[in-house]
Amino acid sequence: MSSTLKGLVKSDVEYDGSNLRVAIVHARWNKVIIDALIAGAVAKLKERGVQDNNIVIESVPGSYELPLACSRMIAGAHVQAASNAPDLLGGLNFSGSFSPPKAPSRTATPAPAVAVATPNRPFDAVIAIGVLIKGATMHFEYICESVSHALMKVQLDTGVPVIFGVLTVLNDDQALERAGLGRGAEKGHNHGEDWGLAAVEMGSHVRRWSEGKFA
Ligand code: RBF
């Protein structure tokens, strides 16, 4: 079968992630597979230049919790960015919360001004990673349906790309193969890698589009 018939065609452009901030939120169900997918995503983020301190990883119990986590992390990063922004006097507030100015001490040696690498920008993309494996009851269908719709809603409501890193598979083997962990001779492809690349590409597009720049 032709390699271009199915699956993702590689982009001609190598998007630069060096100025992007990306969150990964993952479920803990089916953790072995989740870990491989996260590793694949992180490897591609770094390959595209996303810096370590601009990759934030959080976990939630299961896939059902992913949409709320994405939504709240996107909102929280805006609060964080605002509280770290330079104030009108040109100072920087690294504390994240207000504290009244202290009277200058007459004895203490003034602390040197230290450049603290504090995150000061919202997330450019969020990758939601989960592995849903069909069981004997209808749970799978309900969770797949609601999670996929809710993740789409989060990205449309916030304008921040939410990469759909949720495997919805019929059995363990299908999940393992999609994480590059296949038990047969064919190990499969780690889709986490595609999600890392998609996050950098969509983060770059949205930043450019928001500046009114188009190809
Ligand atoms: N969460 C997953 O991420 N993957 C699953 O395959 C999965 N299967 C579940 C099956 C059942 C019967 C139940 C009750 C929950 C399952 N969950 C799964 C957890 C779910 O996403 C969520 O964390 C819990 O329902 C708590 O809200």
In short:
The chain is of the alpha/beta class and 215 residues long. It has five helices and four strands, in the order βαβαβαβαα. It starts with 21 loop residues before the first strand and ends in a 5-residue tail after the last helix.
Name the features:
215 residues; alpha/beta; 38% helix; binds riboflavin
Shape designation: globular
Tell me the structural class: alpha/beta
C-alpha-based Rg, rounded = 21 Å
How would you characterize the largest beta sheet? 4 strands, parallel
Mean pLDDT across the residues is 88
Which residues sit in consecutive blocks of at least 5 with pLDDT less than 50? 91-107
What small molecules does this complex bind? riboflavin
- Tally of DSSP β-strands: 4
Query: In which order are the strands of the major sheet placed?
Result: 2-1-3-4
Order of helices and strands: EHEHEHEHH
Distance separating the two termini:
32 Å
Strand content range: 5-15%
The percentage helix is 25-40%
* Continuous helix count: 5
Q: What can you tell me about this protein's structure?
A:
This protein has 215 residues and is an alpha/beta fold. The protein has helices at residues 31-47, 66-84, 139-158, 172-177, 191-210, and strands at residues 22-27, 55-60, 125-133, 162-169. The protein has a four-stranded parallel β-sheet, with helices on both faces. Helix 2 (66-84) runs parallel beside helix 3 (139-158). The protein is globular. It starts with 21 loop residues before the first strand and ends in a 5-residue tail after the last helix. It binds riboflavin. Residues 27, 29-30, 61-65, 130-133, 135, 137, 139, 143 line the site of riboflavin.
